[in-house]
Please model this.
Amino acid sequence: MYHCSTVIQVFNQCFKASLQTELVRGGHEPIYIPRSPYYPWDRVIFAHGFFASALHEISHWCIAGPERRKQVDFGYWYNPDGRTQEQQTEFEKVEIKPQALEWILSRSADFHFNVSIDNLSGDPHYIEQSANVFKDNIYAQVQEYLQQGLPERAQRFSDALVAYYRNGRKLDPVEFQREAL
Model:
C-alpha cells in the first residue's frame, strides 16, 4: 500500500507542472537539487525508496522559501551521526518544523510517523534527555500547524494524500497525541 511509486505519483501530480518540481527515488542519501540549464525541474530526492524518507524530504521542501529552493539541499548544513551535544541541539532546532509537518503528512496518508533523532552514536544519556524535549517541541509545532494552518504547498500535498489514502476522510486533531511520539 505504501509504495514509493504512489507517493511520487501524488507529489508529481501536485507540483511537477505547476511548480516545476519532481519527487525522485534516490540512493543512499536524500538531497534537494534545484533546476539548472541541464535539467528543467527542481528535484526532491529521497533515500532508498522509503516512503517515510519521501515524506520527510517533502516536508523540508514545503517549508523552504524561494531563496532556499535555489540552493542544493536548501543551503542547510548536515553533520552525520555522532554529533556533539551542541551539534545535536542545532540539528533539533532546524528539524522541529519539518518533523512536525512530516507527522501531519504521515497521518494524511494513514502512515505511522517516527521521530528521527538521527544521532545513534551520540552520547546516549544526552540523546535520551534531549529526545523528550525534541518530541515536546514537535508536538507543540503540530498543534500550532493544526490551529493556524499549514504552509500552502504542505496543505496542497496533505489534501492530495488525504484524498488518495483516506478517501477524503479529514484529519482529526485527536490523531496527534504526544504519547504517540
